[in-house]
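Quick question: what would this complex look like in 3D?
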Amino acid sequence: MLESGSFTFLTGHSGAGKSSLLRLIARLERPTSGFIQVGNIDYTQLSPRQEPALRQQMGVVFQDNRLLNDRNVFDNVALPLIIGGYKFTNIPTRVSAALKKVGLAGKAFDDPRSLSGGEQQRVGIARAVVARPKLLLADEPTGNLDAGISAEIMQLLMQFNASGVTVLLATHDEGLLSTFPYPRLMLNQGQISE
Amino acid sequence: MSTGKRKPIPVRSDVDAAGPSWAYGKRGYALSHSLRQFKRYKIASFLTLLVLGLTLALPVILLFASSSLQKLGEKSLQGESLTAYLNLDVSDLDGAALAQEWLGKSGIRDTTYITRDEALGLFKDNSEIGAAVDILGTNPLPGAIMVFPDSNTLESSRVQVLADSLRSLDTVTKVQFDLRWVKRLQAIVELIQLIGGLLAGFLTLTALMVIGNTIRLELLRRRNEMEVASLLGATAWFMNRPILYIGALYGFLGGLVACIIAMVAFNAIRQPADRLSSLYESSFQLSMPSALQILAVLGISTFLGLAGAISSLYRPSQQLTQVDKTGG
C-alpha cells in the first residue's frame, strides 16, 4: 500500500519482478491473482476500454528513456498532451514549462539523438510529467547514467514528489538507495516485503 | 568604425518549436505523421506509388476504354433498321398511315415508308436483273416500312421481340433484319468486358497486396512509437489512425498515378485509333476520360488503400502494441 504523495523505492535483484509490478500498475499486464487499486480505481472493475484513460493519469519513465527519434524534443514531450486530447492553445506553454522544470529550456528544437544521456533522461521525465500525472512510475531511470547525473535525476523526481506527485521508483542501485532515505518495498520472487 | 544598424538576432523560445497548430490535434497528428512518412522515405514511397500506379493503370485504361466501346456500339447501331414488307394489297396511302401509326409504338424511334414504286426504282438501280422486271408488266414488289429502333431496343433480344411483334401483324408478310452484326459486336464487347473485369480483379488484388505489404513494413517501423504511445495512454484508434491515413494516401496517390498513366496512354493511341476509325468510315473517336470517371477511380483507389491498411492492421497492430517484457 502506497500513501498518496509518497516517494517509494521498489527494490530487488534483477528478475525479481520490479518491472512486472510497474507493468501491472500501468495495466500493461494482468495479475493472475491478487488485487490492485490505485486511488479509487479498482483494477478488477476496469474494462479494456478504460485502460488508456488510466494510463493517461500516470507518468512513466524508462531506463532507456524511449524517446522518438523522428521528432524534436518539443514533439516528444507534447505526445502525452496530444494523446490526452489537450487543446493546442495549452500545449506549447505546458511543454515549455515542463522543459524548464527539468532544466532543458532552449532545447525544444533539438533532435533527441544530439542530447547527452542525462539530457535524454530529462526529456523522458518532462514527457512523463507534462500532463501532470498523480502517479509517476520510474523503471530504473538512472540505470544507464553515472552517479552525478543519477543524483540530478533523483533531485528532479524529488521536486515532482514535493509538488504532490506519488513516485514509485524501481531500482537495484545500492548507492541511490543509501543516499536517499525513502521507504522501500523489497521484491523477492514476486513477494513484497517492506 | 561601422555606424550601420545591426540586425537583431532572432530569439527562439521553446514555444516556437511547435509545428502548425493543426498537427497537435488527434486527426492532425495522424495526418502529419502520415505525410511525414512520405517525406522521410521519398524514394521508397515513390517506387511504391509507381508500382501501385502501374498495377492500377490497366484496370483504369480498361474502364475508360469500355465507355468508349459502349459508345461505339451505340453509334454503330444507330443506323440499323428493320424492314417490314407489307401485303401487296396494302395501298401506298394505307402503308404511309401504318408507318405513322407504328411511330407511336414503344421501342421505335422512327419509321420511313417506301412505296411500291420507290421499291421498284431501288431494285432497278441496285440489281443487275432490274430490267427483267419490265418483262412482267406489273410491279411485283410490295411496299415496305423501315423501322428504326430506339437506343434501348438496340439489343439483340429486344430487337427480336420487336421483329416478332411486327411479323404477327396481318398487313405484314415478312420482317427482315440482320442480327449478325449486332450479335457479333455485343459478343466482342461482352468478351472485352469480361476479360477486363477479370484482369481488373486480379490487378486490384495485387494492388491490395502491395498496400498491405507496405503497411506491414510501416507497422514494423512504427513499433517503438506504438509501444511508447500505448504506455502513455493512447487508444488503439489513436495508434491505428496514422496507418489508416497512410493506406488511404497510398490508394489515392496510386490512383492518381494510374489516371496520369492512363491519360498519357490514351493520348498516345488516340491518333492511330482515329485513323483506323476513319478507314472504316466510322465516326468513332476515342474519348478522353471525364472528370467524373477520374473522381470515381480516385474514390475506388482510396477505398482500396484503406482496405489494404485495415487488412494488415487488425492482427499485427494488436501484436505490435504489446510492450516488450524486459527488465527486472
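Answer marked as accepted. Residues 7-193 of chain A form a domain with the Rossmann fold fold (CATH 3.40.50.300).
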